[in-house]
Write a structure and sequence with these properties.
Length: 382
């Protein structure tokens, strides 16, 4: 019991050395922060309002809590705990919470998140290194909510030696989106990151940055690294028309020697800007690619060009003889989207009504009804 009292005295002494905390409505900053960990939404809401009211005065206390680690006395106390009266153990822990560092760090990061743009960026960036993943995630979320003020520190975090920190930096930047254009070049470096999930996160973040990242991604299509080229094309494809200015670089990438790059570039071009003569020519050329998936993506891209794809009707008609039924069906669908301007392909489409694949016959029938329905009176899909 004497040893236990000594531990209590030591904890009290440490607590007394801590500077006094701001108090709001009778509760300290730490108490309000701990309320952020509760499962009760009303309690969390009240705590968030209180912390907002305290404002910047709460920051020093919360930053100090972010660095808190359990006392070296914890192991000694836990070894003695079974021998101590229950009332003493409960009273001691309730009064001083001496060995609750993880929960206090989580409370601090949640409280800092409630402060919004008043939250300290560097402290939250350090918290990305926290060994407790939940704390690191909440820190990244808070940084993302801060916005562009957090971008410089997050760019540095993208180059951290710790893969999880880099991952959390990608996540935070994806939340910031268009306000983080300066992160684009570093995110492109992360396209080849060896840490699980980071390349996909980088693609997502670049896509959320949107148009400001297009120039950097267009340049990445010329990278000597195949993976960078493939992932850059994928990121551009996810931007849709925002990446229109990347069409010339994507056209060139459709002829890449590596299959993964060609596939992603053809798909991206079809999503981004299949409407120009250059784009349609490149997609028509891709209908002859050695890979069936690339040919399918080319047909789907031309379908998106709709009536504007009339100049490539001969190429689509030729694709009706493709050995892969998916490509034949895709070509028929694209011809149907072109409409009456695809009349030169009518005879080939009529032949497709005899195709062994039901999906091809169905697409051919649909296309004919859009192009020249009277050309096949009484035709039925077998």
């Amino acid at each position: 019991m004497a040893v236990a009292l000594g531990i209590a005295a030591a904890v009290v002494a440490v607590n007394r050395r801590s500077p006094p905390e701001p108090v709001y409505k009778g509760k300290t900053v730490t108490a309000w922060a701990r309320d952020m960990n509760t499962s009760d939404p009303l309690v969390r809401s009240n705590a968030a309002l209180a912390l907002e009211a305290i404002g910047p005065y709460a920051v020093p206390v919360l930053v100090q809590s972010l660095d808190r680690r359990d006392s070296i006395l914890k192991r000694l106390f836990l070894s003695l705990a079974p021998k101590l009266p229950v009332w003493f153990r409960r009273s001691f822990i309730r009064a001083f919470r001496p060995f609750d560092a993880v929960n206090d760090r989580l409370a601090a990061v949640n409280a800092l998140g409630a402060l919004g743009t008043n939250a300290p960026v560097r402290a939250l960036t350090r918290a990305l290194h926290d060994p407790e993943r939940q704390i690191a995630v909440q820190a990244a979320t808070a940084l993302g909510n801060i916005g562009k003020l957090a971008v410089p520190e997050l760019i540095r975090a993208l180059n951290d030696k710790d893969g999880y920190v880099r991952s959390m930096a990608c996540y935070a930047i994806s939340k910031i989106g268009p306000d983080a254009p300066g992160a684009a070049p570093v995110l492109i470096q992360r396209l080849t990151d060896s840490f699980v999930g980071i390349p996909a996160q980088a693609v997502d973040a670049l896509g959320r940055i949107g148009r400001p990242a297009v120039v950097a991604l267009s340049g990445a299509l010329k990278s000597p690294d195949e993976q960078v080229r493939a992932q850059a094309a994928r990121a551009l494809g996810g931007m849709s028309v925002q990446a229109k200015d990347a069409a010339p670089a994507l056209i060139e990438a459709t002829r890449d020697r590596q299959l993964a790059v060609r596939h992603n570039a053809v798909e991206a071009l079809g999503n981004v800007w299949p409407f120009s003569v250059g784009s349609m020519t490149a997609l028509a050329d891709a209908l002859k690619d050695s890979d069936a998936d690339v040919r399918l993506q080319a047909a789907q891209g031309l379908a998106r060009a709709s009536r504007l794809a009339a100049p490539v009707v001969p190429a689509l008609a030729g694709a009706l003889n493709d050995p892969d039924p998916r490509v034949r069906a895709g070509a028929a669908h694209a011809l149907g989207q072109i409409g009456p301007a695809a009349k030169p392909a009518v005879s080939a489409l009529i032949e497709m009504l005899k195709d062994e694949e039901a999906s091809v016959r169905g697409k051919a029938q649909e296309a004919l009804t859009k192009i020249e329905p009277e050309a096949v009176p009484g035709a039925e899909v077998k």
